[in-house]
């Protein structure tokens, strides 16, 4: 059967019209999808984890504000893309763990993009091309890798510098000692415990400008690139927004301005920087500039210690009574509690409560709550044994005499045994309070802003580790002495 010309024209018209409509639909749909992706993060607030001591990428200035290349880039991208960020300064390993557990939405901490890390995280486009150099003390006679045979160098755990150092160690016959913080590396070299440090060239260059007493003696070894990261398969909108914002900053010149602000002439070439350090301020100037941050840390230390101590004392009292109750079930519960918390490190519980609980339950937990739980449960185990021992130390005849006069067991315990047990336990209780003050410093591992954490922030920026820690030691000594005095006054009033 033949097909008429008019029929062919109608079919052709339908096909052309269908094609046009499809093309029009795609033309309309694609921009809409793009707009949807672009606006997916707008108005949202994301929690971003970062390192504590990685100047010039993240550190605190003299006013206590978190600044650096990573911080400026993140804030500029957030402003460009219309979202907000809450930044948690946790430490490098803790920052990655926070992303894994869901405590943080993402992390920016000078993290090298490696195949191994890609197994657990999704990375953004690179925002900085790294490179590693070696530095030695200014008076060192080491001139290159060949002078390192039989000696020890230091590098930061998990960083590109560590990978380069370990790769070269076999060829040149030196040992690599890895530490968790950049400031610790430089202190090892200056104290003579290591002869050289391997680190990313911007960090070494910045340290030299701050007077860390080192000099660069090698050219840059090309390393991996840094990237912003999120958990594998999570927060894709945030990752896309970071990439889009980064591209915009590079296009409008803001990216170059940020690098120039912190790196100067070393921003792109990584050449050995022999910039002379500025004149060093006096010790008293250091005290004056660091005092506000240290006082904030002291306030946090005292606050969390007192709250945790009150809770620990209650826990210790209850479980101490369980231990002397004569009830096998209650005694068993108390024994297990004491065995568990006395037999495990505080840091394990700090990480568990702050990172593990959210990962297991899906519910976030405040750093204050995590810190209080860590301290009170650990100290409560020791106070349980203090209470048990104090009660057992009271002459059993006291209880028997009270019962013979018609008092119930509960009344005899409350009126006769416990007042004497309190007097016996008081020195050990005060001692536990002092231990808690010092144990609170371990919470810096999860980013709690206590006294030692604040000190860490200070010497990470100025590299004056010994002087800063000396100031902190004096503050601890005065604070603990004052708390001891007040506790002894309270004890005398209780024992009257």
Structure characterization notes:
Among the domains are: 128-223, 3-Layer(aba) Sandwich (D-Maltodextrin-Binding Protein, domain 2); 283-494, MetI-like fold (Orthogonal Bundle). The protein has 18 helices and 13 strands. The protein has helices spanning 5-39, 69-81, 92-101, 115-118, 160-172, 182-190, 201-209, 236-252, 254-263, 266-269, 283-324, 328-342, 346-361, 367-393, 396-404, 409-439, 451-462, 465-494, and strands at 45-50, 59-60, 66-67, 84-89, 106-107, 121-123, 128-137, 152-156, 175-179, 196-200, 214-216, 221-226, 229-231. A hairpin with a 5-residue loop joins strand 2 (59-60) and strand 3 (66-67). The longest helix has 42 residues, at 283-324.
Topology (elements, then pairings):
Blueprint: H1 5-39, E1 45-50, E2 59-60, E3 66-67, H2 69-81, E4 84-89, H3 92-101, E5 106-107, H4 115-118, E6 121-123, E7 128-137, E8 152-156, H5 160-172, E9 175-179, H6 182-190, E10 196-200, H7 201-209, E11 214-216, E12 221-226, E13 229-231, H8 236-252, H9 254-263, H10 266-269, H11 283-324, H12 328-342, H13 346-361, H14 367-393, H15 396-404, H16 409-439, H17 451-462, H18 465-494
Parallel strand pairs: 1-4, 1-5, 8-9, 8-10
Antiparallel strand pairs: 2-3, 6-13, 7-10, 7-11, 7-12
Helix pairs in contact: 2-8, 2-9, 3-13, 11-12, 11-14, 11-16, 11-17, 11-18, 12-14, 13-14, 14-16, 15-16, 16-18, 17-18
